[in-house]
Amino acid sequence: MKLIALIGRTPRSTRVGIVVQLLLQLAAGGCAALAIATLAVPAWTDGAQSIGTGLLVILAPIAVLGLIGMRIVASAVAGRIGMPAAFAATTVLRRALLRHVVDVPLDVFSRWSSARLGMIATDQVRKVEIAFSFAVGELVSCWATTGLLLALCCALSWRIGAAALLGVGLYALTSWLSDRLIARAFAALQPATNEAARRIEEHLQGLATIRAHGALPLRESALTTVIGRLRDIMVAHSLRLSGAVRSGAATIDIAVFAGFAWAASQAESAAALTAAGCAAVLAIGANRALARSAAYLALLRLGESAAAEIGEFLAAPPLTCQPPAAIPDRFDIAFDGVTLAYDGRSNAALRGLDFKVPAGQVTAIVGPSGAGKSSILALVARHREASAGTITIGGVDIRRIPAEALAQFVTFVEQEPFLFNRPLGDNVRLGRPEARQHELDALARDVGLDEVVAGLDKGWDSIVGEAGGTLSGGERQRVAIARAALKDSPIVLLDEATSSLDADMEALVRTALARRFAGRTVLIVTHRMSIAAQADHIVVLADGRLVGAGTHEVLLAADGLYAKLCEAEQRSAGWRLGAGRAGPSSASARR
Ligand SMILES: Nc1ncnc2c1ncn2[C@@H]1O[C@H](COP(=O)(O)OP(=O)(O)OP(=O)(O)O)[C@@H](O)[C@H]1O
């Protein structure tokens, strides 16, 4: 997306504000040029003979001060109008970004890391903000000063004017050539910045693991390499940029001096010589304004490249709701020939799955690690899109269910739930903000969260830290279960949702879940066969394929993978880690 295209997305009032800002900056640039041009008054007035030196000495400073004052006022008013307009434009952009983050399928985030998206929403939008609120206006002002001074210079001495214009032409040519050089360093700048941000974020997130494995020197040296690469690219970019600006300014200065020498050699009177001198002063003034504009042009380019990266993310296709949209009125789920292939994997995670999940019952999904159990839940919640086949809820293809409706129908409790750095109560109320306090208290008692609340200084009002970091894994899971129960949706997806709870707590939570989720369509992913055995219906997966489905008794009798998994669980229940090697505990050996 180009900056100009971005303006097109903003409300009319914002566009008007930006145009008014540009017009005012144009006027400010004109005032600056006229202030400089007063230095050339002797040339217009026959060496001041026509108006008298005394009058000139009084009038010129007044004119200069007046013009400078007008310039300051025009610039200030431009800022007051332009800045709110620019901030309004980037607010539109930030909203569009946040909306889009919700609208795209989750696999988009394997290409756009959270560090990169964070940079886009903050740093890149800020660059667009700077481009609109400041750089573009100042650029117009500088170019207005340059243009007007060059025009006046041409009027005073066509020779110097021609030389200066030739210098400007050469400047434009060298800028164009050096731009191509700079563009190469510039193109590498953003990916290197993104990579450094991603590595730093990863370093911070993985700090405990890095310490636990004594890997600090290794990780630090990797980080230093990435940061060093970024430094090298930045230095190369800045050197090329400033080199281009300096050489461009020098080209025009040389052309002006050559033009002055030419004009002076042709001057036949003192007045002609004065005019040549004044024209040269105007041309040098024009050159200074042009040189100043290079910095604003660079800021504009940064804004342009930021807008391009923002546009690239906004172009990622959102999850669409296929017409005609439909809302299911029952909540059985059916998989029909569903295949899921993740990017970068040669084997599909799920292959041609056909099975049904009855409405209002509990269905367990079991299978070895990596069999594709969690992927099934991700498909139902539409966190992922199936590569082939159809998933229906109540007979309606989920691609036809509007995203907001699906989010209302389906609650997903992950193994490692995310908590917001907000009060505990707010985290539980996430799905139903209007829930009453007594509902929360009753729920807390049901799922064993009451003892957690009691142990916190401010009870429900305690802030749980970044990603819920002040709570244990089991406590976070109880919070996630409580908020799922409070939301009370017709479909509930539980992905190893009680895996961090001890046996007593798990029994308590399971009893509560059975009561709270009675009559809901519940899909449970679990490794514990004792949990799966209690489900109404069980789906068995291996290597992305369906290898069994039915009740516990039916699957045991079939003596397939399910029976083996049950047997393995029973065996491992009696095993312990001994001082020397693993072996059956004495209790198990007795059995
Ligand atoms: N985001 C992803 N990108 C690429 N491959 C993935 C992704 N998520 C899962 N996979 C792969 O898909 C396959 C199925 O993964 P899935 O998490 O669904 O299995 P699972 O049965 O839930 O495993 P576990 O019991 O270990 O949690 C695995 O081979 C896994 O490596």
From TrEMBL:
Listed under GO cellular component are: plasma membrane
Keyword Transmembrane on entry: yes
InterPro entries cross-referenced by the UniProt entry? AAA+_ATPase, ABC1_TM_dom, ABC1_TM_sf, ABC_transporter-like_ATP-bd, ABC_transporter-like_CS, P-loop_NTPase, Type_1_exporter
Swiss-Prot/TrEMBL keywords: ATP-binding, Cell membrane, Membrane, Nucleotide-binding, Sugar transport, Transmembrane, Transmembrane helix, Transport
Q: How does it sit in the membrane?
A: Multi-pass membrane protein
Its chief place of residence is membrane
Q: Enumerate the GO terms in the molecular function aspect.
A: ABC-type transporter activity; ATP binding; ATP hydrolysis activity; ATPase-coupled lipid transmembrane transporter activity
Supply the Gene3D superfamilies for this chain: ABC transporter type 1, transmembrane domain, P-loop containing nucleotide triphosphate hydrolases
User: In what residue span(s) does the ABC transmembrane type-1 domain sit?
Assistant: 26-267
Q: Where is the ABC transporter domain?
A: 333-568
Membrane-spanning parts: 51-74, 130-152, 158-177, 244-264, 270-291
Against Pfam families, the record matches this protein to: ABC_membrane, ABC_tran
Compartments where located = Cell membrane
| Function of the protein | Involved in beta-(1-->2)glucan export. Transmembrane domains (TMD) form a pore in the inner membrane and the ATP-binding domain (NBD) is responsible for energy generation.
Query: Which family does the entry's similarity section mention?
Result: Belongs to the ABC transporter superfamily.
Q: What is this protein called?
A: ATP-binding cassette subfamily B protein
The source organism is Rhodopseudomonas faecalis
